[in-house]
Amino acid sequence: EGSWIVSLLSIGALFGPIACGLLVDRYGRWKVLMGSALPIAAGWLMIAFAQSIGVLYAARLLHGFGYGLAYSVTPIYLGEISSDAVRGSTGVLVTVMAKLAFLLQYSIGPYVGFRALAWISLAFPVLFCVAFAWMPETPYYLLARGNDEAAASSLRWLRRDESIVSELGRMRKLVEQSKQTTSNPLGQLFARTNRKSLLIILLLSLGMQLTGINAILGYSQTIFSRLALPLSAAELSIVLALVQLGSVMLPTFLVDRTGRRPLLLLSTAGSLIGLTACAVYFTLDNAGELSPEPGAAHGWIPFVGVLVFIVSFAVGLATVPFAILGEVFPKHIKAMANTVFAVITSAVVFSVVKLFQVISDGAGTYVSFWIFAGCTAVTGVLIYYIIPETKGQSFERIQEIMQSGKSGPNGAQHSEAETMPYLPYPFHVRSAVVAGLLAFVALLPISLEAEIDCNSLRMGQFLCPDPSLRQIDPHTQQLYGCTKENKARAWCIAADGIVCSETKNASFTRELPCKWTNGYHFDTALLLSVFLGMFGADRFYLGYPALGLLKFCTLGFMFLGQLVDVILIATQVVGPADGSAYIIPYYGPVITVVRSNNWTYRLPQDNW
């Protein structure tokens, strides 16, 4: 009965994504999200008044339905309301809130009755409905419904900015492209152009759950009760939840800075280390090699191993897939893609959670942990070969990467057989069921293309900076991160047919020249020179107090010095005293002095 209470959540979650796929494009993201709170609230009410195990089963099914519905539509909603710069961070907040809920249940659950816990938990879906009622519908959905005015109002509210014409135009173009496609989203999902995106989602959904995360969290007190530690299982679970919450907050700040691939690979490696440590411990414990006395030094090994696994899993595998899910599919099949992702995830979660207790009781806990470790190792290898980097990319650019065939060196399109080779080696794990699932993933065609170091590209082979990204700081009118050495790293885009080894796609970073600024505006300096130059205001502003004082005492050298300074500042010969450049619009009247030297002058040749 205990295993069914844990695992029935996943059965209910199978139907939530299906409902999402049917409703989200018809009624909108906002209404579906509001509706997802109803089965969750109903489930807590049933638990509060339950008089039999059957009512608890039904409540868990309702919770699963609401969970599956919310988890399917939330990445769509967040992906469509977020700007390119923070879309990854908002995507991983889903998992941050989930871990906060784990901490709440672990901290309150062991010390109150389950009915009291139900009443406490009921407050949260109610609070969600009250707070979310003030949120807008997504601009993409409103544009798809032809309500341009409401879409502009929604985007203006979300950006807190009136300058939305350019972004709204890009959204409208993407929506129009989606409308031109076939009305069969399921057929489009399995189309050749979306094969790579589908493979990515399949890999991430299987990889997340085959690490055993839900089984370990669901049975944490059962696992910890077998350890020879002075702390109680409930106390260890609270520590575990605190570590989880702290860990999942890291990707919120890192996912849009370090990228998706590094976090996923780091997460997989750390998870493998933690699971292997637990597997070795339980193997030795099952063989009778360890002392069962409470307080034994080795008793901390599996707990630390679980903590390492939880931290590592939270850094990437728990959060990044939700950010990627909102990016790799076009709008018209995004709901169907979320449905497939959630259905696969729910099915795997049910299998893992239900079989964990059966395998642990029948063969030993160490067998389950060895299976999880093997699956995690395979997941890491597949992530390395398959997952591309989407950091800093716009929706439009990501769709080009996912759907467009890459050109060959002569401009010819590669055939499917050339661009979609099979993985060369089969992978084996100890569980026959898990091996069958992973073999299916491994045999799907994936795109492996030739890679080069894009920093060695020549002029004409790349565009830098990438014009589709916002890389100009509005405060300095220079590239973000411009240093005093007048250099900054910017995102560039390679020509068609070129894949960069740095990011596994056409984007790469390159060091570009820039002009370091320190708050001195060109228009301010020129206006001060023209109207108040006789009092030295321009020189005081630019950091030349001695000259400013001299002009003040002599009325700008009887206006002659004022005229000279107007010319010098207008031609940008005189600049700020600290050596910084003027803040001038990036495409404004910037004067660059080119001097004749060994780099700019070529001596005439006899054969000219």
Main attributes?
608 residues, mainly alpha, Growth Hormone, Chain: A, 3-stranded antiparallel sheet, Sugar_transporter_CS, transmembrane helix
Number of domains: 4
Continuous helix count: 25
Rough outline? elongated
CATH architecture of the largest domain: Up-down Bundle
- Strand fraction band? 5-15%
- Helical coverage, percent range: 55-70%
Radius of gyration: 30 Å
- Strand order, largest beta sheet: 2-5-7
> Separation of termini?
93 Å
Number of E-type strands: 9
CATH class of the largest domain: Mainly Alpha
Keywords: Cell membrane, Glycoprotein, Membrane, Sugar transport, Transmembrane, Transmembrane helix, Transport
Pfam family, one: Sugar_tr
Membrane topology: Multi-pass membrane protein
Main location: membrane
What's the short version?
The chain is built from 25 helices and nine strands. The protein is mostly helical and 608 residues long.
Give a verbal description of the structure.
62% of the residues lie in helices and 5% in strands. Strand 3 (472-473) and strand 4 form a beta hairpin. The chain contains 25 helices and nine strands. Helix 4 (87-108) packs antiparallel against helix 13 (233-254). The strands form four sheets. The chain has a three-stranded antiparallel beta sheet with strand order 2-5-7, with no helix packed on it. A two-stranded parallel ribbon has the order 1-6. The chain has four domains: 1-162, MFS general substrate transporter like domains (Growth Hormone, Chain: A, Up-down Bundle); 198-402, MFS general substrate transporter like domains (Growth Hormone, Chain: A, Up-down Bundle), CATH 1.20.1250.20; 450-514, no CATH class; 520-583, no CATH class. The chain is elongated, with a radius of gyration of 30 Å. By secondary structure, it is mainly α. It has helices at residues 2-27, 29-49, 53-81, 87-108, 114-132, 139-144, 148-159, 165-179, 185-189, 195-210, 213-218, 220-224, 233-254, 260-286, 300-315, 320-325, 331-362, 365-386, 395-403, 416-419, 432-443, 522-532, 537-542, 545-558, 560-570; strands at 451-452, 462-463, 472-473, 478-479, 487-494, 499-500, 507-513, 517-521, 581-583.
